[in-house]
Amino acid sequence: MRSAAKPKRIVLTVAIIIAITAVAAILVILTVAQQKADQSGQLNLTAEEVLEGVINKMNYRSLSQISSENISKYYEIPDGTIVDFAMYVSGKADSSTEIACFKLKDKSRQETLITSINNYLASKSNTYKDVADSAIHFDTDVSYPYVFVAVSSDSQNAVSAFEFVISHGTEPSLPSPQ
User: Fold this and answer.
1) Nearest CA to 77 among 97, 107, 105, 99?
2) pTM, rounded to two decimals
3) Whole-angstrom Cα distance, residue 163 to residue 173?
4) In 3-state terms, what secondary structure has residue 98?
5) What pLDDT, on a 0 to 100 scale, did the predictor assign at position 143?
């Protein structure tokens, strides 16, 4: 009887070793996947979600969304450069606030998009050259795959809000104190 118990132990031992190896492999795969997600430091947000988060953090009011048909009135974006975009401009006559977010198709398209953005901002700068309101600032920030543009008196704060949103996501806005 001892000889019959020995093969059963061997089979049981092999089965346990295989199970332990499978669990270890699954844990390694999950750990590597989590590390890659942590290294990117970004959530997979749409350009619209990014700007909604910036608008909430900055407490911007009276901004109007620019439709995809009208983006060409602002930026000349070559085909195949971006996969998503969102843009808002101030609806107030006394405000020049504009924010835009572009999601690049791939990293190789970044320079093309930056050139287009710089061309637009240069034309905007010429518009404001003779305006008494010199408080308008132009700032851009790139955190692949997102490219953010802010034209406002508080553009640096908008860039900080953008960086927060792409690393932490959007939060529901809190009610304003009355």
Assistant:
1) 105
2) 0.70
3) 17
4) strand
5) 93
